[in-house]
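Design a sequence for this backbone.
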């Protein structure tokens, strides 16, 4: 079974873990998020180690799946790409976790190949127009063609290579839909049982909706810069206190680019979502009140409380749809892993790396 670390990262070299359903929205919204999610079955060790006579070939092969070679080069590239993604998420791998990740990448590549082979055995084909449309969707995620090509270079990819992999993914999607997902049913009773069994997952803490005006202050700012920033925010506070339109003041003066154009509106947030000085000040206000100047690691703020939402519980009917999506996703993942193990046991899989 994958360790907690690997489950938390949710690594998947080629989308083996239910390629189709992994794109389903999780239960993060509506606070239907579960800390201890259902665990999936352990992966069986159904691979064979190479014989001594294979040593020469083993240098270039990571695995052979029913005669199809997964090259050491392809494995190394996928490992490198996975490491880049992990680093981009802010994680650093020690030797033990790196070894675990390497093994998982290999397992995922083997599983994907088994699923792709099964899709071909079932006569599944991918429509060329649909594949082209999917590639266009991918490209549109990048503002310019140059940025798309920069991504290819960064991850050591080619457009033709991505298209080929995309075609395989789409074939696997169709296989999973036909052989697994279409046969998974989540009942109302299943959803209600999950809801009743995870009360903390649906608890909504106290929230406030607030606007703010920020005058930034660099961490290494000198006293002169700090004095100027504080004078500026105090002037804005005075204007707000005299009846100035807070939203307009925020739009014209706030240095928080994310909220300034919305009149400083931060939407609803819980206390844990903000840095302590800001959160303490915001949650001390009544609706309509404006805070004194607040200093945070970002600079100086003034805050206006717009609305207060007391702690509550997300109703079952509100959470029901996402619970159903989550439970189906978990069941599909489990069934896909079971299918991979079945295909392994029926076929011949050799691995050439430890």
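Sequence:
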């Amino acid at each position: 079974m994958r360790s907690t670390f690997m489950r938390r990262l949710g690594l998947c070299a080629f989308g083996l873990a239910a390629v189709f359903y992994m794109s389903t929205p999780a239960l993060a919204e509506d606070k239907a998020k579960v800390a201890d999610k259902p665990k999936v079955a352990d992966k069986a060790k159904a691979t064979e180690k190479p014989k001594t006579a294979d040593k020469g070939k083993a240098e270039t092969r990571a695995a052979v799946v029913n005669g199809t070679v997964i090259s050491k080069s392809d494995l190394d590239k996928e490992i490198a790409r996975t490491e880049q993604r992990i680093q981009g998420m802010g994680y650093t791998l020690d030797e033990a976790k790196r070894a675990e990740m390497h093994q998982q990448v290999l397992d995922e590549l083997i599983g994907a190949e088994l699923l792709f082979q099964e899709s071909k055995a079932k006569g599944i084909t991918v429509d060329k127009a649909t594949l082209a449309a999917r590639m266009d969707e991918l490209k549109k995620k990048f503002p310019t063609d140059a940025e798309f090509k920069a991504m290819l270079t960064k991850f050591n990819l080619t457009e033709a290579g991505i298209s080929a992999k995309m075609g395989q993914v789409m074939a696997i999607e169709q296989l999973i839909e036909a052989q697994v997902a279409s046969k998974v049913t989540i009942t109302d009773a299943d959803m209600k049982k999950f809801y009743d069994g995870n009360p903390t997952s649906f608890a909504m803490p106290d929230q406030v909706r607030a606007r703010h005006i920020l005058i930034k202050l660099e961490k290494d700012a000198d006293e002169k810069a700090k004095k100027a920033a504080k004078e500026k925010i105090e002037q804005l506070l005075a204007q707000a206190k005299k009846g100035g339109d807070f939203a307009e003041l925020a739009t014209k003066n706030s240095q928080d680019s994310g909220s300034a154009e919305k009149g400083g509106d931060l939407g609803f947030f819980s206390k844990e979502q903000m840095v302590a000085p800001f959160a303490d000040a915001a949650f001390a206000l009544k609706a309509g009140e404006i805070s004194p100047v607040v200093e945070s690691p970002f600079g100086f703020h003034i805050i206006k409380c717009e609305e207060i939402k007391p702690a509550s519980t997300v109703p079952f009917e509100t959470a029901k749809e996402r619970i159903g999506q989550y439970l189906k996703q978990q069941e599909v993942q489990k069934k896909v892993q079971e299918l991979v193990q079945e295909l392994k046991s029926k076929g011949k899989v050799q691995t050439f790396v430890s």
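The chain has two domains: 4-199+316-351, 206-310.
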